[in-house]
């Protein structure tokens, strides 16, 4: 540590450039991770908020909530741990507002999802033409008692409440009654819902044409969800590997320049472990400094970022990413360590 | 007892038609309190002699003992420790760490070997003798070649070794400084009872020597 600290102190510009590069990489990784997490949450916020464990869909719906329709016979009798929902895409329209794409979720007011819905303002739905909307509609200019039309319905719906984290597949949710869902889908005498959501992780059904999936199976089939996550994971993975290469190359060059000095120290009996320790300490110090500044920049970004940007900052996940970068730095630092261990003290004798 | 002794040391490099014998049956001993000078032209085997003397190279045959113990009986780690504790190397290529001040170059030794180094007063005296007492906060890049060489000498002497092996210690020094370093090496030998072995081209050091050797084509002979 003594040698590493002294070198960082003396070679400020060189160390500064290296730290700057690690700052940029770590900042980029932190922001990408937060963006990936934010988007993932906006895809799944509602499902998670419901506390869903198992979801039953029509077996021919390809695990896609939008394509699933269940008849009254398929739904059968539900316990208190199950709730029937009807899901459909809608466009909300109101005079003075831009058209807004949303997801309508029809609920039965006595079932657990409607009962547990946490309101950020207003009251629950009581009548057919009332809705509770995600609070992102507030940012779009809607407020309590605002009236809007869904698709081409002649009837206007009144917003009686707002709720937080009501997003499905990045689209804001408008909650209403299940009968409203039927009328929106023009299926008044047909299917009674899209899916059965259960809080029970052991939920099963023997109804014909119905298949039960885990929450994650349904989430993975949300349009674009898996591809989006894989893309982010790939980008983050590449950045991790790039950081490893940058740190390894820099430390290798720095170490190569110091080998004659190290050879003299080896002649004088300074143990290899002291020199190896200096190399590893140097990489750890550089990366920790870079990570600290990168984390600070990320925190500042989190404060100034508009709420509309789908970013989520989770300390545990960002901490894990930081530890990952540190491990990469240690691996990068091990490459020049080989050169230090192989330094030939004889090379400096005889001028 | 001899502080340092070589008996029937031979060193060969390469094999078959490429085989070169660099040292031929070298016998040498250095006692505490003496300054031995080994002179010879380039390629005569002086550096190989020094490398073997410092335990950095195991000879093809023969024995090398330091304070009565054969190098063969020590592991690589123990040889490192021996060099740190018992042998002070002064090299022609001093390569001071560029990011350590003169004081830190010495502090590094303390970090690795916390005890048994020169006492502050003795160190002060060595630094004053070498004329570098005012350079303690300078970095190597701020020093002349001669000043760096003297710092390297101070670094080698600071662990208070029993044996000092010097490779062309006066190569970068002017006439006046050669006298100072010769006097310092002599003082270390006589007053501090060190066994000092100097390998050099520099005939200006002959006056200070107690024992003079010549190395020619790997054969070491004692001058009369």
Describe the structure.
The complex is a heterodimer of chains A (351) and B (224). Helices cover 50% and strands 18% of the residues of chain A. With 351 residues, chain A is an alpha+beta fold. In chain A, helix 2 (12-50) runs antiparallel to helix 8 (225-267). The longest helix of chain A is centred in the C-terminal third of the chain and has 43 residues, at 225-267. The mean pLDDT of chain A is 89. Chain B is an alpha/beta fold and 224 residues long. Chain B has one domain: P-loop containing nucleotide triphosphate hydrolases (Rossmann fold, 3-Layer(aba) Sandwich). Helices cover 31% and strands 26% of the residues of chain B. Chain B has helices spanning 46-53, 76-86, 102-112, 120-130, 145-157, 175-190; strands spanning 4-13, 20-30, 35-39, 61-66, 69-70, 87-90, 163-167, 195-200, 211-216, 219-222. Chain B has a 6-stranded mixed beta sheet with strand order 6-7-8-3-9-10. Chain B has a 4-stranded antiparallel beta sheet with strand order 2-1-4-5, with helices on one face. The chains are: A alpha+beta (351), B alpha/beta (224).
Mean pLDDT of chain B: 88
Task: Count all strands of chain A and give the number.
Answer: 11
Q: Could you tell me the CATH topology label of chain B.
A: Rossmann fold
Helix content of chain A: 40-55%
Largest sheet of chain A: 6 strands, mixed, barrel
Class based on secondary structure composition and strand pairing of chain A: alpha+beta
Structural category of chain B: alpha/beta
What is the CATH architecture annotation of chain B?
3-Layer(aba) Sandwich
Distance from first to last alpha carbon of chain B: 23 Å
Q: How many DSSP helices of chain B?
A: 6
InterPro entries (chain B): AAA+_ATPase (IPR003593), ABC_transporter-like_ATP-bd (IPR003439), ABC_transporter-like_CS (IPR017871), ABC_transpr_LolD-like (IPR015854), MacB-like_ATP-bd (IPR017911), P-loop_NTPase (IPR027417)
Organism (chain B): Loigolactobacillus bifermentans DSM 20003
Domain ABC transporter (chain B): 4-224
Keywords (chain B): ATP-binding, Cell membrane, Membrane, Nucleotide-binding, Transport
